[in-house]
Write a structure and sequence with these properties.
Elements lengths: L13 E9 L3 H11 L4 H9 L6 H17 L8 E19 L5 E17 L12
Antiparallel strand pairs: 1-3, 2-3
Length: 133
């Protein structure tokens, strides 16, 4: 069995927010985290605000916390923040049973997840204007 990896430290130009034990499966949370990876922070907040996924609200709050950490703890420019990492990990699994016919039982698994969002200060390139030809 291999040793768990040590958490990567955050650089001076980065800030992070960690959420533990979110009541959503890692698979579903990773779909939402994939929406904001490598996006500018302002665009990522807008994307999560209008997402129809239930867990997007909690992810948006975590992202806003990471942005606030960057501004207050590391004195980074909020307008140049980019979501560099959005890592999803497994947490506990609550196992319940569901009664079935003829005295049998089926297992119900309730998954929990961890989320780590890291924002870093980078030069955000302005979007190139498309020429109408």
């Amino acid at each position: 069995m291999s040793k768990p990896k040590a958490p990567r430290p955050v650089a001076d130009t980065e800030a992070q927010c960690v959420l533990s034990n979110l009541r959503v499966s890692p698979r579903k949370l990773n779909l939402v985290a994939g929406l904001i990876r490598n996006q500018p922070a302002s665009k990522a907040v807008a994307t999560l605000t209008f997402s129809k996924r239930r867990i997007a609200h909690a992810v948006r709050k975590a992202l806003e916390s990471a942005i606030a950490n960057a501004e207050n703890n590391h004195q980074l420019d909020v307008d140049q923040l980019v979501v560099t990492r959005a890592e999803v990990g497994r947490s506990i699994v609550m196992r319940r049973f569901h009664a079935r016919g003829r005295g049998r039982a089926a297992r119900v698994e309730k998954w929990f997840s961890h989320l780590k969002i890291v924002v870093a200060e980078r030069e955000v390139a302005p979007e190139t204007e498309k020429r109408a030809a």
